[in-house]
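Good morning,

Attaching, inline, the backbone tokens for the sequence recovery test we're adding to the shared suite. The designed sequence is right after.
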């Protein structure tokens, strides 16, 4: 397992991060414990959850599992949403969003559920149009100064939202976002246009979510066939959005390389994300111990340039005007 700095910080995170979103939902606690144990046994030190996953049960389960080894784990969680919105229940107006009041209340609940007195990486789950970013950054800065939070990150921000936040932090000398958690995989490459170049330029660590496309890039989905009944894409009705020609072309390329190397499809998909420049760690998910075992096969796996090129070609975004990409990806002049 390789350890990398989270962006410009001195914090070292394992190349794979275990996403705990399934815990308390489709993965019971006993299975979750086996998944975490195996991940840590193989050198993993980075776990990601959120206050709203399984209405708080994900944080509770994660907290119980890592309680006796808290010091060796880098624990990331998130704030912004309220679980009631996923349950169709009413949400009191001050129990959602990135106001000072909600952040300060919610961090205490997360600390309690996680059974810890500090969170290593506290992330805002997405932008809040109803709160000034200055208010949010000041509240997060207070948490860092109090020691309740060690580092801060953002998730699902657009490029302008991230840049605006960094500017506010720099202007007022407040803690800066150290990482961004965006969706990124071979079938979701939009962040390559604006967000990845920005993160590299500003030295913000990138920790992608859904690197397997929620399971699409694992080999269990077939063109022209219905998705397996127990799969997430079937249960969450995401199938229609993903079953398109470009994604199948991409999947075929991943499967070809997997077959040539005698590796699992998921391993190749994870390795591709892991090898993109600026990636600090790849947040994968697993519903079962078998899936976890397969995905952990990607530890240390590095693809050859010809393989990266093949995957790049199969999954490429629509072309832009000539030179646009190059203009965005130049390193920072220092
Ligand atoms: N910031 C955000 O907004 C955000 C959003 C989503 C996720 N996340 C974070 O990112 C983590 C990972 O996201 P994700 O779960 O969407 O990632 P993913 O790795 O793309 O998908 C994981 C899912 O794919 C299927 N799968 C995984 N490995 C498999 C294998 N080897 N063979 C067959 N199927 C396999 C499983 O679903 P089924 O078996 O049920 O089909 C599993 O739950 C989450 O736990 C969470 O921490 C963050």
């Amino acid at each position: 397992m390789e350890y990398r700095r989270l962006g410009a910080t001195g914090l070292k995170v394992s190349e794979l991060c275990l996403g705990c979103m399934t815990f308390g939902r489709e993965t019971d606690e006993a299975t979750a414990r086996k998944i975490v144990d195996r991940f840590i046994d193989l050198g993993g030190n980075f776990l990601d959850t959120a206050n709203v996953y399984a209405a708080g049960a994900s944080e509770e389960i994660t907290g119980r599992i890592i309680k006796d080894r808290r010091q060796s784990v880098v624990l990331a969680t998130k704030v912004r949403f309220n679980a009631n919105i996923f349950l169709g229940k009413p949400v009191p107006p001050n129990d959602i969003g990135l106001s000072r009041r909600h952040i300060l209340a919610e961090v205490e609940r997360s600390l309690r559920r996680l059974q810890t007195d500090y969170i290593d990486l506290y992330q805002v789950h997405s932008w809040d149009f109803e709160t000034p970013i200055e208010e949010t950054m000041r509240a997060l800065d207070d948490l860092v100064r109090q020691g309740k939070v060690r580092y801060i990150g953002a998730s699902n921000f657009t490029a302008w939202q991230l840049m605006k936040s960094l500017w506010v932090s720099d202007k007022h000398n407040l803690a800066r976002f150290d990482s961004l958690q965006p969706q990124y995989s071979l079938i979701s490459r939009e962040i390559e246009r604006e967000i990845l170049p920005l993160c590299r330029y500003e030295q913000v660590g990138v920790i992608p979510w859904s690197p397997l496309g929620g399971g699409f890039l694992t080999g269990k989905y077939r063109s022209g066939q219905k998705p397996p009944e127990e799969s997430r894409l079937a249960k969450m009705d995401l199938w229609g959005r993903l079953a398109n020609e470009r994604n199948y072309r991409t999947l075929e390329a991943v499967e070809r390389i997997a077959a040539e190397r005698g590796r699992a499809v998921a391993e190749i998909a994870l390795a591709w994300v892991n090898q993109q420049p600026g990636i600090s760690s790849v947040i994968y998910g697993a519903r079962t111990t078998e899936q976890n075992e397969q995905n952990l096969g990607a530890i240390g796996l590095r693809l050859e340039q010809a393989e990266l090129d093949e995957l790049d070609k199969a999954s490429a975004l629509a072309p832009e005007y000539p030179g646009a990409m190059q203009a965005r990806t130049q390193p920072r002049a220092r």
